[in-house]
Amino acid sequence: MLHALTMPEAFAGTIAMLLIVVQLTLFRSVVIGEFLRVYSLQSWLLAAISLGVGIVEHGWDLIALAVLTVIFKAILLPRYMQWLARGISVRIELPARINVLLSLLMAGALIGVSILTSIQLPLHQGAFLPKADLATTLSMVFLGFLVAILRPNALAQVVAFLTLENGLFFGTITLAPGLPFVIGILLLIDVLIAVVVFAVLVRALVEQQAAVSVSVFERLRG
Amino acid sequence: MILPPIAVQAAQVLTLLLLSPLLTGCIARAEAVIAGKRGPSIFQTYRDILKFFRKQALTPEPSSWIFRTAPYVACACYATIATLIPVLTTYPLPGATYGDILGGAFLFALAGFATALAGIDSGSQYADIGSSRATMVGILVEPTLIFVFFSVAFITGTDLPYAMNAALRHSWANVLRPAHVLATAAFFMMLLVDTGRIPIESSSATIEFGMIDDARWFEHSGPWMALFKWGSSMKQFLLYTIFVNVLLLPVGLSSDGSIQSVAFAIVTLFAKMLLVGVIVVAIETTFAKLRLYKITEFIGTGLLVAILAIFAFVVGVG
Q1: Which residue does chain B place closest to A134, by CA atoms?
Q2: Which helix (H) or strand (E) holds B8?
């Protein structure tokens, strides 16, 4: 018979699985807007787990981190990147040799590897299912890399990096809730750098393909 | 007043028969309202069904008895499934243990099979294409559903829907267990496929190119058409019931069979379904329909999620 889960364990497990399911949708999106929406959704989930852990552990810094995550990672940055990318109509297809189902199989194998790896480790303490958390963190990192490898497009790779970073953020919150506030903030600043890279890339792309920009047509609407 | 179990069982089937068109109507209305239209009345589905019942039925020349009996077989299957799953009560009613959750899945498959045969039997190409598409989608969906039910059976230690409901009601943490969350997510994706919702097909469109399920009864008319329409509402109602009562929110059901608690169970069931309907409508209005050959990717994702659920449970992370 299986052991009953406590409420914090079940909560962390749920968020972990939702993060992976959301990440899997990256393998079939073909427009950058969907990538950004996935990133925003993941950030909401991260804010939820940060808030939950903060309440259970009475850590005010984690609750503050949850608020910052919502403001920056879930609302402002995705909107800003969407606004930056509005001018370019890039399709971010997979390379021709790999179709969606094959990439999903690869993703499944990588998740399997991360689950098998994390159950081998002697992690027993912790109120939030440490093994499932570690498995999730590893799979998100692997899946982030896989997306970055499979998409031959710089913008998609930046967003893939951002989702990979979300996985690390999840790991730090659930596996080490007592972590200093500074490190959480550092992780947020890390994201800002990725966004700056995104902005520069978009600028370069707009220079290159100004002729195919769809924003030109929007002005023509009657 | 305590109702005898057989009366409650009859109430379960009647709830299915009488409320399923209302659910379809509510969802259609919500969809129209979100799209900025006034939309049909929530009772429109009843009117449609009544109208078709009063009309004359025509049989295409090449068709046989299969064409004529299929609507009854499909509706009978759906009405039988209602006796196997916890629609209103937490305790098993007479006949509820004749089949487990796979028995219910077999009845769904039988109804789909009869409908597909009727489509082929009609001799019309459109109905034939509908049958072939529905069968293709069905072949892909079934392994996912089997994995979902197996993983829920692993967690709850049983494959009887009533016992699953009881095991989940016993502890909320069971509902939020990682493996169960993945299984529920996979079931929700299959729910969208099986009820013909947007990533797969657009439910309100009448374009033959994109049709899957509804195309199968192109050649049926009159009362048979009414039965098929009613049947597709019932199928949606049943899948929603399994989703909310067996997998997601096993609360609000009657535990003693008194009239008040059964009435309360009907109201809460419908409220929970409307909640799911709102999510489905939100998906309908924000996502685009997939091209026919991209459907495998959507279902493949669902299958992967379901396999992960079993995997997560077996290796012990949740």
Answers
A1: B317
A2: helix B5-34
Chain A residues lying within 8 Å of B318, measured CB to CB: 5, 13, 17, 129, 132
Could you read off the pLDDT of B114-140 as tens digits, one per residue? Answer: 999 999 999 888 889 889 999 999 888
3-state secondary structure chain A: CCCCCCHHHHHHHHHHHHHHHHHHHHHCCCEHHHHHHHHHHHHHHHHHHHHHHHHHHCCHHHHHHHHHHHHHHHHHHHHHHHHHHHHCCCECCCCCCCCHHHHHHHHHHHHHHHHHHHHHCCCCCCCCCHHHHHHHHHHHHHHHHHHHHHCCCHHHHHHHHHHHHHHHHHHHHHHCCCCCHHHHHHHHHHHHHHHHHHHHHHHHHHHHCHHHCCHHHHCCCC
- Residue of chain A whose Cα is closest to the Cα of B168: A4
Give the C-alpha separation, B253 to B152, whole Å. 20
Q: What is the pLDDT of residue A215?
A: 53
CB-based contacts of B14, cutoff 8 Å, min separation 6: none
C-alpha span between B274 and B243 (Å, rounded): 12
Query: How far is B91 from A178, CA to CA, in rounded Å?
Result: 46
Residue ranges per structural domain of chain A: 7-213
Q: Which residues, including other chains, have CB under 8 Å from residue A207's CB and lie 6 or more apart?
A: none
At B38-85, the pLDDT tens digits run 888 999 999 999 999 999 988 998 889 999 999 999 999 999 999 999
Mind telling me how many Å the CA of B266 is from chain A's nearest CA? Answer: 29
Closest alpha carbon to B138 in B166, B167, B116: B116
- Find where tokens 């991260």 sit: A46
**Residues near B49 by Cβ (< 8 Å), separated by ≥ 6?**
B21, B226, B229, B230
What is the rounded radius of gyration, in angstroms, for the C-alpha atoms of chain A? Answer: 19
Instruction: Determine the 3-state secondary structure of B299 from DSSP.
Output: helix
Nearest CA-CA partner of A114 in A6, A14, A20: A20
Helix/strand/coil for B204: coil
Structure tokens at A98: 């790999």
